[in-house]
Amino acid sequence: MAHRIQWADLPGCLIESISARTGPIISGTAVTEGKNSPLAATVETLDGRVFVKGLPSDHRMVITQAREAAAAPLVKGISPELLWQFDEAGWNVLGFEHIDGRSAHYQPGSPDIDLAVELMHALSVIEIPPGPGPWKPIQTRLRTYVDNPADAAALAGQTLTHTDWMPDNIIISRGRAWLIDWAWATPAQSWTDPASWLIKLIAHGHSITAAEAIATRLPDYASADPAHIAAFARATANMWNEIERDHPIPWATTMASAARAWARHREALHR
Fold this sequence. Notes:
alpha+beta; Phosphorylase Kinase, domain 1; Aminoglycoside 3'-phosphotransferase, Chain: A, domain 2; 2 domains; three-stranded antiparallel sheet; 10 helices
């Protein structure tokens, strides 16, 4: 995880590059949520607010900036608009429409769950155009976590999936939801997004049965091959086991426990 840089500590040349796109900057405030980008800030300008995020141009994860930029034109209407981007002053930076809102709540009974389902419905019909891009297909992302390469191949598809449905990646604003942070955007079968999301629901207090019932509101998940879901569940549990091992902090432990419980559930159904 990256160390978040406070606005006052940013290089002057970087602030100049940002202000060249925004106009005069009144103030900048580093956001507290998320830790993957050293630069993540709300910028107050004469024309309103802009959200900026960025990484040093030579950072090993700068590819995630390219994914966000590539996803932006595909997700207009469900995500804040990408206003501009640049790679200069030693930084790769994206500027987004600012949405004033709060992070989603996933606890049982939360009305935000219905809004998240609506987002998934909209996303499930968006396909990544053919041709090269900054994407890492799901069969590549999960190849070290599956029991058999065929299990990963069964997840392959051209639907744009978000894959990181943590509550702070959904902004609730004026009765609707916006999906943000496309760093891990992935070509895959569309049902894999609700499948990964239901683990978050379990981690936030839903029973496995209740989380599954919510996921099956997405037709693609409801009709997915149970064997493929079981394979995905095993791979996801293996992934979270690794995350917990490398980052033994409470949220990783909670997520790993939820992933293991769901994998056992799906395995029992598949027998």
